[in-house]
Every structure is written in structure tokens, then in C-alpha cells.
Amino acid sequence: MRLSDIDVVEPRNLGDALSVLHERSDGMKPIAGGTDAIIRLKDRLLETRELLDISGLRELRYIRKEGSTVCIGALSTYSDIIESSVLKSLCRVLVEASKTIGVLQLQNRATIGGNLANASPAGDTIPPLFTLGATITALSHKGMRRIPIEKFFLDYRTVDLKPDELITEISFEAVERPCDATFLKLGLREAHFISVASLAIWARWANDRNSFSDIRVALGAVAPVVIRARKCEDFLRNRRLGEEAVWEAGRIASSESSPITDVRGSADYRRAVIPSLLYEAVHKLVESRRAWERP
Amino acid sequence: MKEPAGFEKRFWFKLNGRQVFVSVPPAHTLLEVLREKLDVTGPKEDCGKGECGACTVLMNRKPVLSCLVLISQANGAEIITSEGFMKDGSPDFVQKAFVDNGAVQCGHCIPGFIVSTEALLSRNPNPGLDDIKIALAGNVCRCTGYASIIRAIQDAARSK
What we know:
Chain A is of the alpha+beta class. Chain A has 12 helices and 14 strands.
């Protein structure tokens, strides 16, 4: 189907969008920023007769704190995230991840809800949201569902979202200190690149300041979906952070991945860089903890 | 009743300061409408996939890629292309700085660079080298004239 044959429906508000989706859920696809969907439509990787353009729904564009929870409206753009004072102080890791995505022109259009629905294994907001234990809120005319992010991705580019549901919000517990969470991605150049491999950590420091009493590690672009490296987490939990321990944890994380070879890198290369990513991420947390404690 | 394939819908937006109305298929890209319907040929289609920045325009004052915006998504928006920065038919300070610094070789990518530069200088009148590189990271010049482009931007910032 050519772009010129596709109809685009512009809902007046969220309620309108949900009832249109309910009436015509057969083959109608929602489109938000469109920075990935339009390319996929042009390349005919995505086929549809009708698009529901939700990009203008202002009520899904907010970033706010509710108690200790951070709530992000699904249509918040990466630029909204990068410029958000709430996120700068309560979830710097998501700000840093968003800065690495595409370039300014894309950050001004692409949305966090789109990144989730699009479900690329290389989607860069996904590993941090995995480690934050984020919850995805989906709405249909029938009501609301709250889905833990790890249950949301079913398979390569397949998500637990019914044809008449829209993602409305992403929420998670605030992370106040930069030394409690980090994100790293490896690409083939400095700017405007898609992850060859990426890694996010959320950690709770133990009182000895040299180990984590709890840790979550997520890996991107090295499996059909983003994954948690649970064996690596188990190995590192309450273990003294020495050189050998961290390299060993990285090797364990690598063994939990199942990468493929594609234009950006070979499966062997991806497996080989995971320990380095983990080492560097832990190093970043240690350095950032030192900086935090410096008077 | 579903309308037949290839149908058109009516949209309006503000283009370089004046209101325009167009009747086009709703999933046409903003870039197609600008170039083929309105004869505004500053923005170019090179990759069509959001990689080169040649189609950069301002949409509600923010740089976006017009090849990845559907015309229905631009309905009611304020769009400014490189043409929109001209002052009384003459180049403005950014365009002049590009010419003065020999930053234009084949010229194909330059309208996109102009729009990205205008957006940068309007939010940061005195950008450092890294600010310039980050703001321009989405614009590709295959004559690889980046050194002179960066000089032109620094010159434009000084001249303002």
C-alpha cells in the first residue's frame, strides 16, 4: 500500500481515539511521532489502510511526580524527557538514554510510548525502564490495564497490546541519585546511531559502599527482546566489587544473551562486548558514587 | 463509507508566515506537500528515512524531518523552511555567513543546515563547538564541508 492510499484519522481527544479504535480495530494502526512507523510504511514493513494519528493528543504529554512515583505520558517526546526538570532530578538515567537516541530532529518528534509499542530490541529507553521496574498503562474503551514492562514484550517486535488499546502512561519509582542507575550503549560512531549493544543497571548500594545489596541489569540489542541478565544479577548481589568479580559478572551476562549477526555487528562481537559494557557501567556507578559523596 | 483509494483531504498550516490550504492525500509527507504542491524546494529528499537531515524544517519552532511528518500531523502547525528566514528577499545573517565562509559546496544539504543553525542560534546565541556539533549531528554533508560549515555558524553567532 502506498502512503497516498492510506487514510489518516485525527481523533479530537483520547476518548474519541479509543472509540474509533474500538469501532475499527481491524487493520487500523495508531501512529505517534511516526519517526519509525513512517519509514516502515514507506518500506512496506508495516501495512495498514488506516492510521489513527494520536500525535496531537495533548493529554498524553506530561511528566510529573506523584508521591515517589514518576509518571510519563506516552506521547512525551525525547526532547520533553531531556528537558524535564522532574526527570533531571528523579531519573537522570532516562534523560541520558534519551540524549543518545537519534538526533535533535528525531528527538523532537519521537515519543516514549512509540519506542515501547515499536518494540525494537535496540529501543534505547527499554533497558533503563526494565531496570527501573516500570509499569506500562494501556487503555481501551473497556478500561485500563497495568502491565509490568518485562511482561509487555512477547517476542521480536511483538507486544502485549490489543488492537483497541493505546499506551497512555509509563510509571516507575524515582531514582534520586545518579549513582543508583546508569545506561551505556555501544554504536559504530559518535552520533545518530542505533545500538549494537546496550546495557542498563539499577542498583541499591550496600552499607559497605563496595557492593550492591540489590541490582538489576538489562541488555538491549543482544536478543529478540530486551532481557534481564538475572544470573549476572545473582552473581553480583552482595559481592565485593573487585576487578575479577565484575569481569566474571560480565561473562555471565554475555552467556545470558542470544544475539544475531546483522549490519551493525556480528553475534560474536556482541557477545564479546557485553563484559566491557558491564565493567564500564559498574565503573561509572562507582565513580558517580564517589562524586556524590565528595563534599 | 470508506473513501476510495487516492482520495484527498483538506489541510491548512502556516508556512513561512502565511496561511496555506492544500488538498492532498492525508498520509502524504509534509516534504512531498512542500515540494510538489507548494513549490517550496528548499527542503530536499535525500534518504527519506531520517538519516540525512536535508529535509529539516521548523515545526512549531523545533527542527523536525519533513520526510517523517505526515501532512495530517502538520495540520494547523507553524512551518518554517530555509526560505522563511530570508529578510526582504535577501539572505539573513546565517545564510550570509554560509556564503561568506565558503560553507556551500554542491549546496544540496545547505537548506537543512540553515534551518538547524537558525534553531540552534535562536535558543543558544553563543554556542560552543560541542553545542554546534550536537545541534548539527542530524545534518549530513557528503561534500564533507563540515569545517567551513562550523566556521560559518561561529561567524553567524558573532555577527548577530
